[in-house]
Write a structure and sequence with these properties.
alpha+beta; 13 strands; five-stranded mixed beta sheet
Amino acid sequence: MPASPTDRPPVSRRQRGFTLIELLVVIAIIAILIALLLPAVQQAREAARRSQCKNNLKQIGLALHNYLSTYNVFPLAMASDPTGATNGGQWSAQARILPYIDQGAMYNNVNFSVNYAKGVSPARDRVPVFLCPSEPNDKVRLDGGLEIYPINYGFNGGTWEYWNETNGKKGDGAFCVNSSFRPRDFVDGMTNTLAFGEVKTFTPYIRDGANPSAAGTAVPTSILSYSDGSLKTGGGIGANSSSGHTEWVDGRIHQTGFTTTFTPNKITPITDGSTTEPDGDFNSCREANGCTTPTYAAVTTRSWHEGVVHVLLMDGSTRSASENISLTIWRNLGARADNQVLGEW
């Protein structure tokens, strides 16, 4: 009698696995795919960060124009009386527009009759609109153990000679000490004048050398041309290394502004004769700090976005300024009334 199919011995089926070579091939293919995909992901993220950065500037532009609608003037950079005292006026333009960037509660902590204090609100508070998403040093700064927060967007203080404490002469930019500029003051048109631009936090700077001391000193081609021993007066670099643009409430130009002395992202070494930094800013004499000489400032716009610096124009529009922009055009953009109406740039 034939055997039933169920009586047949089971057929042995061997499970076949990956060989070592096949496994290595699969790993290599995955690595190649990741290598191809990663730059695209990074580019997408950077594009998003750039978009957010420009949007921050756009919000600042809207705030400036809302301030204008309320007070009929644009905010001043800071205030100073004829003696050089601030009497509460050292608050920055950025602090003055807080209500217009949805920071009304923070604005309520501002007392413009006294100077700001480090370690308390709002000086220690982080303002998201004032910080670029690409900034790696988005962190509090400690000054004598007291907290204060940095900033990534500075006002346009003009070309070079920024302020004269003795006669009240203002620079040629969009903002200054004791300024009360109106749209009519922008002779070149607000479309042709810079309002704000990117700056890097924790920037080294040199200050209080009272050099140059004469009014009308020519714009330098290099900060090094003014780096002699006199620049050590008042601290030089050593006492202030890497503290530029770390106080968003302070209206002084090395903290919340920039000048068009040099083009965007220009590397400018600084030295006080004993300390040297590979890149930094310059302020000959801090505004409202007992200066008897003009305040000259070479404070450069800098960005973490490769090849460009995002800027806000006085009309509220935003642009990406190439670091290769002509120095002449850049300085024309920084001046509010030099009678240079620009085309494409």
